[in-house]
Amino acid sequence: MKKYKETYIIGIDHGYGNMKTANCCFQAGVTVYDKEPIFKDNLLVWNNKYYLISTEHKEFSADKMLDEDYYILTLAAIARELNIAKIYSADVLIAAGLPLTWVSEQREEFKRYLLKNETVDFNFKGKDYHIRIVGADVYPQGFAAIVNHLSDFSGVNMLCDIGNGTMNIMFVNDKKPNPHRCFTKKFGTHQCMLHIRENLMRIHHAEPPEEMITRVLRFGTADIDSDYLKTITNTVKEGM
Fold first, then answer.
1. Measured by CB atoms within 10 angstroms of the end CB, which terminus of the chain is less buried, N or C?
2. Are 28 and 61 in contact (CB under 8 A)?
3. Residue burial 73-96, b: 16+ Cβ < 10 Å; e: rest
4. What is the pTM of this model?
5. Phi/psi of residue 176, nearest 5 degrees
6. What is the pLDDT of residue 236?
7. Do the Cβ atoms of 15 and 164 come closer than 8 Å?
C-alpha cells in the first residue's frame, strides 16, 4: 500500500486460488449467509449479508465478474491492508491485474465492476470501514514484477507467472516485451492438485484434505502417512 497525497493505492492480485496484496495472502473463497454464522473468523458484513472469507477456493471461471464474490474479496483485501496501518476510513485507488492476454478485452468491464460503488461501508473481522473508491487501474498480471527492471533483461527472456487457474507467459527480448509472444494458458496448480487427488484415490482409495496436500506442495512434507507423501511428491515430479 502506498499513499499519494490523500489517496491510498492498494495493489490487489485477484487470483483464482488466493488473493494477494503487498502484505497479505488469503484464499479466494466466499460463503454467503443471510444470518450471522456460528463461526466468525474472517467475517465480512455488507448490505445486510454475511460473508465468510477464505472458506475454500473459488471454482475456475474465465470471467471474474459473474457474481459478487471478487467484489467481496476486494473489500476484504482493502480492509487487510488498511488494518495494518490502523486506518479505517480512506480514499482508495485499486491497482488490479488480469491475465496477460485477457487484459485488453476485460479491462474496462473489470474497472466498472470494481468501481460500481463509490463509497462502501462494511465491517470486517469486527472493525468498521468507510472507504471511497476513487479509481481503479488494471494491469497485465506478472508484468508488474519486472516492469521496473526491464533494463536488466538483455537477450531473450521468458516471464512465467504460474497461478492456481492460469499460467501467464511473456517473452522479453532485448529489454522489450514482445506483444506477439504473450500467452495465457488455463493451466495452474489447481490442475496439479486434481491430478494428485486422482492418484491418491486410485492408489490408496483415500483422499486427504486439500490443506494437507497444499502443505506438501509448499513445504515438501506434512503430518501425513509416508505412502501418501510419496504418491504426492511422485505425482508432482512426473508432471514437471
1. C
2. no
3. bbbbbbbbbbbeeebeebbbbbbb
4. 0.82
5. -125, 135
6. 87
7. yes
